[in-house]
Amino acid sequence: MVSNKMILTVMLIAVVALVCTGCSDESTVIPATVIDTAPPAVPANLSVDHSGYSAVINWTMSTVDTDLAGYIVTREHYGVTETLIGTPALISSYEDTNPLPGSTLYHVYAVDYAGNESAVATISLTIVQSHSHSDLTD
How much is the average pLDDT of 12-17? Predict the structure, then answer.
């Protein structure tokens, strides 16, 4: 049979263990940090309209990316890439007021707040310069 002395010893050990370790309190539990590595959706429905002296690039903004910071736009002309919008902007179109003659590729990609970038959506524009008779040499 268990003696009173043994019961007291077990209870004392339990109290000491509780005092030394403390009680579990969910408010003191530090949650694990979640690192966002998922890229945002690729800009959809890319189109370009050229008239006069400008080209307007349009796309559909993402409605599924709640952490979307915006879009970056670049222009590639004969292998040289120029950044037209370098800081993510929450826009769905960009007007290039100085489109270059010849073949140009416009690249649009989405960026989220964690810095993840989507795949690039690309559209091509070719501007053919017409020459009047006074521009031609004999």
Answer: 62
